[in-house]
Amino acid sequence: MFRDPAWAAYVPGGMSWQVEAKSELGAALCYAPGRGGEPRLIRPEDLVIRQRGRPGYERRVVDIAVEKVPAQSLLVGETFNAAGQWSSYPPHCHEKDDPGRESFQEEVYFYQVDPPQGFGYQRVYTDDRALDEAITVEHNDLVLLPRGYHPVAAAPGYCVYYLWVLAGTTRVMKPRDDPAHAWVLQAAEK
């Protein structure tokens, strides 16, 4: 499981590169269309780490390549859900470009579960429910999120981690909360 703070490298499209591991290494290759820019090493001290949410949907979110790293159309980070907690909550989506309100981003989640025999759940649904799926996620699962809201729940007793990778028409992270559940944020602020 990705327990230690991440090290990452941004390598612009079209550039040759290689990695040599001098010890055991857990690695993920995250990529999206794009060319140009400068390569950059992202060290643990470059990460932006935040505690988000309230009891029931608390999680640690780590920005690896978001605002501080110019990376063409790519956004990368991690979410750590403690046992029994929800994340990507209230449910949000990013399926259209609507400046100031929402940005279009396709997304992928790569899951790790601790202990690895555990599980979590991910729901993916659209406003009109043309897409409405509940997915059991287990250790090393990958879920593609081309559209829809996508909340995650960790089963009691199991921590759920996911690496998230977004790419879209703009490099702006502006999700839209599901209006049916957005009240949770307002209630938490009171």
Task: Pick out its properties.
190 residues, mainly beta, Jelly Rolls, six-stranded antiparallel beta sheet, four-stranded antiparallel beta sheet, 1 helix, 14 strands, 4% helix, 38% strand, globular
What can you tell me about this protein's structure?
The chain has 190 residues and is mostly beta strands. It has one domain: Sandwich (Jelly Rolls). Helices cover 4% and strands 38% of the residues. It has one helix and 14 strands, in the order ββββββββββββββα. The longest helix has 7 residues. The radius of gyration is 17 Å and the shape is globular. The model has no long low-confidence stretch (mean pLDDT 92).
Brief overview, please?
By secondary structure, the chain is mostly beta strands.
